[in-house]
Amino acid sequence: MAPVLSIICTVCFSVVIILSFLLVFGLPLGEFTMGGQHKVFPKNLRIVVLSQLILQLFFVVIFLQLGGHIPMWFSYKTTRIIGIVMAVYLTLNTVMNAISKSKKERYVMTPLSAITAVCLWLMI
Fold first, then answer.
1. Vertex 112 angle, CA 28 and 65, to 5°
2. Rounded CA separation 76/55 (Å)
3. Nearest to 48 by CA among 61, 28, 59, 34
4. Are 112 and 1 a contacting pair, CB within 8 Å?
5. Residue whose C-alpha is closest to residue 104's, from 50, 35, 44
């Protein structure tokens, strides 16, 4: 079951990674994140998104490791702890997305983070 769940996590999170990548390059997709405060992210926020993008790629590696698709970078115990921290974060992120002022964030990002969180909780 873990291999399938890790692929679901990876696919959902890949959508977030693509969105982040497009935000870094100034596309007008800001309504999908941060409560829709900025249609186009200002340059200082693009740097923040770029750093998040690196972290998001690391998360995908953890998903794939937990699913047994790629070798572990850390011990299983350490990887599992990272997975638990990520699951907690994604659970909180789901709540924050669900109460966002932005309809696009509520309707697109909430399901993505919820699906990823549930799959991750089931994997760990």
1. 115
2. 19
3. 34
4. no
5. 35
Query: What is the Cα 77 distance to its own chain's centre?
Result: 22
Residue range 84-100: average pLDDT? 96
Q: Which two tokens stand for residue 40?
A: 């186009």
pLDDT of residue 38: 87
Question: pLDDT tens across 61-73, in order?
Answer: 999 999 999 999 9
Q: How far apart are the first and last CA of the chain?
A: 11
Q: Find the DSSP H helices in the chain.
A: 2-24, 43-66, 76-98, 103-104, 110-123
Distance CA 30, CA 6 (A): 27
Three-state SS for 20-45 is: HHHHHCCCCCHHHCHHHCCCCCCHHH
Q: Which of 91, 78, 101 is nearest to 122 (CA)?
A: 91
**pLDDT tens digits, 38-59:** 899 899 989 999 999 999 999 9
